Amino acid sequence: MGVAGSNERLAILMIAIGARPWSRATSELFRDYANKCGATFILQTEEPSEADFPLPAMPDSPGRAHKRVYALKAFLPWRLLAQEGYDRVLVVDDSCCVKHDAPNVFDFIEPGAVGLTETSHAHAELSFKEIRKYLKARGEPEIPYNPEHYMNSGVMLYTRGMADAISPERILAAREMLFAAYPHQTLTYYLLNSAKVPLTILPKAFNRLPASTLPPGEWTNMTDATPYLREDDDTYIYHVTGAFKRREVLIPSLALHLLARTDPERARAVAATMPPPSEVAPAPVAPPSIARRIARKLRSLVR
Domain coordinates of the chain in residue numbers? Predict the structure, then answer.
């Protein structure tokens, strides 16, 4: 385990570009955590100029919308490491909530490596399929495909020694991977592994879903995860992913709950600045009518 040196320049970067009102609460948690780690906290709410990062316009489909923002999750840490002189940079999604007693994540990674947390092997295989297709079309050599080294990129720790792997030139050259179902994870896996960057697997406690012990079906419309925060919960960073459809309610409630544990007055002040989220649950999807079900069955019989 490499211990962050006192003379290192450390940064925690939270990217919150677009309509992300919950970042008012989650950023307060990471601002405190940055102070604890001896790091500079940076809340990135604006995109860099086209001159700084000349990614051509990309359509929303196939894949996801806002492909430029996904690409920025690689470009912005590169800029901090290569141009602004930081030695280590933790990049977190604005949908992450850190606990006040979390250990210093910078102590978990060696110089020149990347720190990441594992995620679904099924997601990995989808990304690997896109990478294989990309490499075959260009006649490039294959890279290692290890699902245990495939990351959820909501929490990533970069160091200066590997910055060239995520340079703008490499991002732009591989931008086609942003059409994948998991754009940043696909792009990042390719960039890191094609450059043979050493990977450090961080404890899953640094990137875990809230209420992770519940069946996934119970996450969909959840608006409050705080009843599931047990005293013996060893999670350091909760990550409210897209698996939770009511994030505009769930994230502020979780972040303000955690902030109130250490600073109730500031939690109330932050809550007062936030727009009230809609309390109307999404309309359930209506089941097919009997006529449609019969028609579907008849089509299946004549195929």
Answer: 10-273
